[in-house]
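=== RUN LOG ===
request id: a7f3
mode: sequence -> structure
chains: 1
length: 449
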Amino acid sequence: MLSHPFRQIALAAVWATLMFCGVGPAQAENNAYPDAIESDPARLGWMVGSPPPPDRILRFDDGSYFRFPAMRWSVSHFRQLMPTVNVSRGTAAPGRLRQALRDDIDALMFMPMGSDQPMSWRESLLENYTDGIIVLHKGRVVYERYFGVLTPAGQHGAMSVTKTFMGTLAAMMVAEGELDPEREVADYVPELADSAFGNATVRQLMDMTTGIRFSEDYADPNAEVWAHAAAGNPLPKPADYQGPRSYYEFLQTVEQEGEHGEAFHYRTANTDALGWVLARVSGRSVAQLLSERIWGKLGAGQDAYMSVDSTGTPFAGGGLNASLRDLARFGEMIRNEGRYNGQQIVPKAAVVDIRAGGSRDDFSKAGYTLLKGWSYRDMWWVTHNAHGAFMARGVHGQALYIDPAAEMVIARFASHPVAANAANDPTSLPAYQVVAEYLMGKKQAAPAQ
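=== RESULT ===
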């Protein structure tokens, strides 16, 4: 049981973990929150002034930075609040994003899941508390919008979209023969031999089919999520603290529950463990690896960055922050089977493996009622729909959606008050589909109002 002072710090860290990881407790209905306009962080004036007024100051140590609506400012300013490590774009000139902007997408109409009331594309952006969204068609920017405090020059928390970058790096290393997905994790990281991860295969990490005990019951002070958050919290620990002090130390304490390889279980600790494997095999931190293998080759417009624990270990499960345009560049590279900026960045075989998806039977056991027929492979979410669409997902509405048939990529950053994607999927997934169909010439735009 955590002491009271440290429990307050750990509580802040738990909610930070929720924000980054793609998991979260049930929250109130959307109508319990101010809408996107009322909660606009620019309108509310967070952190403006020298110094800001006391009631407009946000801090990491007291958890104020992630409480809604303040978190709408924080997701675009994490580097001001917590320690981070850079993901360099290198020294080459940024690649040019060609534009073919159009003004007819806002009026596209679709029917949200479970609703009999149509909604326009533009209405969906406010409904989902969008901070920025960009649509590429055949590699050209056809639509780009920013809201609140996010700008083209800014970076935003990618949350669990980070996992997809880690899975892609792993798939690259498998395709290049550096990593054997059928070997046990302990073969690469002996320190994990006595943990639940030790006898799991690398493939089971990559597809999240490990059987590990990782409770996210936030009402239980002994749940593993508390220990994970406390370990990764970069703030100083109290003198009587006896728990793990880093992500690596925490991973060595994870116990087994169930059998490996039997079902999909979305648990952030899997990505942390995969990050350790990648770091050990490559001799690089995952931030350095991401820079060298992907970010420095994309022609990215900006450096990215990752949050770190007290030992400087990047948070593989959800710590990436990047610009919207660079996230779109990554998506376009994957759409083009790993080729972009005049070079083959990700081996084609790795992209083929991602797009093929994982076991739908394993995925169905997780009970995602809005994602029936989907699967999970290499830390990508695969729809198996008629267009072969697949995506990266993060809490509060972060998304990278790739539709190969429509030759379309959508990148979105958001700050939805409800963490779980089930809150925005009903108005996001059909919106992506209607834009894809429109760009393919299968759907007509509504007349201008």
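=== NOTES ===
The domain at 109-174+270-439 is CATH 3.40.710.10 (Beta-lactamase).
Confidence is low (pLDDT under 50) at residues 1-9, 22-30.
=== END ===
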